[in-house]
Design brief:
The protein is α/β, with parallel strands linked by helices and 239 residues long. The protein has one domain: NAD(P)-binding Rossmann-like Domain (Rossmann fold, 3-Layer(aba) Sandwich). It is 44% helix and 16% strand. The protein contains 7 helices and 8 strands, in the order αβαβαβαβαβαβαββ. An 8-stranded mixed β-sheet has the order 3-2-1-4-5-6-7-8, with helices on both faces. α2 crosses α3, α4 packs parallel to α5 and α5 runs parallel beside α6. The longest helix has 29 residues. The chain is globular and about 50 Å long. The termini are far apart. The N terminus is likely disordered.
Length: 239
């Protein structure tokens, strides 16, 4: 079986795939021959992004747009049901959706902490609880949790308070998930670096393609790849 044929048997789901790193990741995975579930908070945004992903896709790749607000309890399970009703099964879950609330520990409003925790912690937790059991039952799966050096204790937890705290908690979610996995199912976290997105701003050093590179790598790891590791540029960094 050719690599492209093997890839066509896999399906990736990317949250927050309507722009930025998420869109670049979805497009590259489709180019490599994976079916891709393109999600965004608004279904219309997911449908619009799917046009770009389809344009990049290898022949015979399926692209499925789904409206998904990961911060809402029950949304992950509803997304799973919609994906499975389409005949697809998610083999690679890229938890990319993110927010960047500003403010320090005392100045940031309560809503900033609530939103960051809802998206970066509960959102990822619910997505993993919805999709990873299927991966375990099929004996294959890849989970990629998009984090940041701002969520690393080893790098000082710099950055806005709500963002750093929520990304640090995402590290704990990743580790605990990885500890439960068996077979060829893996979960890792990644810091894509400072990327030219709406969040990163025009002065960021990295292109979207460079930012997506490590996400795609972790979403397509071979069987002997790592599990439960935090990466930047394919190199482990401290939690």
């Amino acid at each position: 079986m050719s690599p492209s044929a093997a890839a066509a048997e896999r399906t990736a789901l990317v949250t927050g795939a309507n722009r930025g790193i998420g869109l670049a990741t979805a497009s590259e995975l489709a180019r490599r021959g994976l079916n891709v579930v393109v999600t965004a908070r608004r279904r219309a945004d997911a449908e619009q992004a799917s046009i770009e992903v389809r344009a990049a896709a290898a022949p015979n790749v399926r692209i499925l747009p789904v409206g998904l607000d990961v911060s809402h309890a029950g949304a992950a399970a509803a997304c799973r049901d919609e994906v499975e009703a389409s005949g697809l099964r998610v083999d690679a879950l890229v938890n990319n959706a993110g927010v960047y609330p500003s403010g320090d520990f005392f100045q940031a409003p309560d809503a900033a902490f609530e939103e960051a925790i809802a998206v970066h912690v509960f959102g990822v937790l619910w997505m993993c609880r919805a999709f990873v059991p299927g991966m375990l039952s099929r004996g294959y799966g890849r989970v990629v949790n998009v984090s940041s050096g701002y969520g690393s204790f080893g790098e000082g937890l710099e950055g806005p308070a709500a963002y750093s705290i929520s990304k640090a908690a995402l590290g704990a979610v990743t580790i605990k998930l990885a500890q439960t996995l068996r077979g060829d199912v893996k979960a890792n976290a990644v810091c894509p670096g400072w990327v030219r997105t709406r969040m990163g701003g025009p002065g960021a050093r990295r292109s979207l393609e460079k930012g997506a590179e490590a996400l795609v790598w972790l979403a397509t790891l071979p069987a002997d790849g790592p599990n439960g590791v935090f990466f930047r540029d394919r190199k482990p960094i401290p939690w």
